[in-house]
Amino acid sequence: MSHLTQVQTNIVNEEALKKALNALNIKWQDGPQNIKNLYGQEQTVDILIKQKNNFDIGFVKEELEYKLIADLQYWEQPYTVETFLQQLKQQYAYQIILDETINKGFEKLEEEYDKDGSIRLVVQRWRY
């Protein structure tokens, strides 16, 4: 049966979420915008990801965290929901770490994406 599902993400930082979506080459739009299911049930989202089948997905901030909102029956992304969330959370964590290290005076020297999917980040801070 078609219905909109909310999936907990533990994502709290909007800018890091948007950077993570960009890093995954996922096109998104700022909300508020509505998404709907087959029966016309609608929900307003803060970040919208359009799908070719017009059953868009999005993120809505509830209390302190963003939740993924989607009609999973009409999921049309290159990965499964689980893989999508895994990759999104990895990129989100990477963005949080990178932003925090830059705020503390470090600069990124290099990053490597390993075959196992892990990311190696090298940062440095000069002391005078």
Largest sheet: 5 strands, antiparallel
Q: Helix/strand/pairing class, anyone? A: alpha+beta
Counting structural domains, the number is: 1
Strand numbers in spatial order across the main sheet: 1-5-4-3-2
Q: How many distinct beta strands?
A: 7
> What is the rounded distance between the termini?
63 Å
How many helix segments? 2
Envelope shape: elongated
Which band does the percent of strand residues land in? Answer: 35-45%
Q: Percent helix among the residues?
A: 25-40%
Which blocks of ≥5 consecutive residues have pLDDT under 50? Answer: none
Helix-strand pattern: EHEEEEHEE
What is the overall pLDDT average? 90
Rg from Cα: 17 Å
Structure in words:
This protein has two helices and seven strands; from the N terminus they run βαββββαββ. By secondary structure, the protein is an alpha+beta fold. The protein has one domain (5-124). Strands 1-5-4-3-2 form a five-stranded antiparallel sheet, with helices on one face. Strands 6-7 form a two-stranded antiparallel ribbon.
Question: Tags for this entry?
Answer:
128 residues, elongated, 26% helix
